[in-house]
Amino acid sequence: MTIQLGQTAPDFEQDTTQGRIHFHDWLGASWGVLFSHPKNFTPVCTTELGEVAKLRSEWEKRNVKPIGLSVDPVFAHYKWERDIEETQGASLDFPMIADPDGKVSSLYGMIHPQSDPTVTVRSVFVIDPAKKVRLILTYPPSTGRNFHEILRAIDSLQLTDARSIATPVNWKPGEPVVISPKMSDEEASRQFPQGFKTLKPYLRIVDLQPSGNGE
Fold it and tell me: What span is annotated as the signal peptide, if there is one (predicted)?
């Protein structure tokens, strides 16, 4: 199955390190970050899981629930959690899905038979409270994921959902944004009384900060 942006995230019921969950019910009204690992006791993924645990306050600030997945059974996840706490200095306070039957991996297209039909690829799915898939990332085994970039992308999604704007290249929270080309200058003036800068008719920059000057 191929997952596409904007579609409803496939629902499932599966065992995790925090008990059996029904995915959509578990998400509730929160955003979710579902990220997979090829198998337990792998070095790069060990560092990643520790980092996600360390970022707990950042997930909570954004109303985001992280949840991991590996093809190994729950008892192996518990053993891996002890290694993660020992080596990374953080205990996992989010669930790890046990997927030994490959049910969830297949639902989310995490198994690439031409690569290795026995393990999942290292995918990330950002899911909004309406259960829509909003971002998909896939990493090679040798490259650790940048969860600060995932947080930045979630900041952008949450901000742009609320207003007719988009975030430009390398944007960080608090920096100027671009106004949707679909919005007229008249409407833009009403929505952004602080003013905006027109570089091209389709490229208008606005600073959302109260003290900004629109530059």
Answer: none
We report the CATH number of the domain holding residue 137 as 3.40.30.10
Mean pLDDT across 176-190: 95
Task: Write down the pTM of the prediction.
Answer: 0.91
- 66/94 same-domain check: yes
Please pick, among 45, 67, 92, 110, the residue that the annotation labels catalytic.
Answer: 45
**Shortest CA distance to 124 belongs to which of 107, 112, 108, 142?**
108
> Is 199 strand, coil or helix?
strand
Residues 34, 132, single domain; the answer is yes
Return the exposure string of 123-136: e unless at least 16 CB atoms fall within 10 Å of the residue's CB, then b.
bbbbbbeeeebbbe
Q: Is 45 a catalytic residue?
A: yes
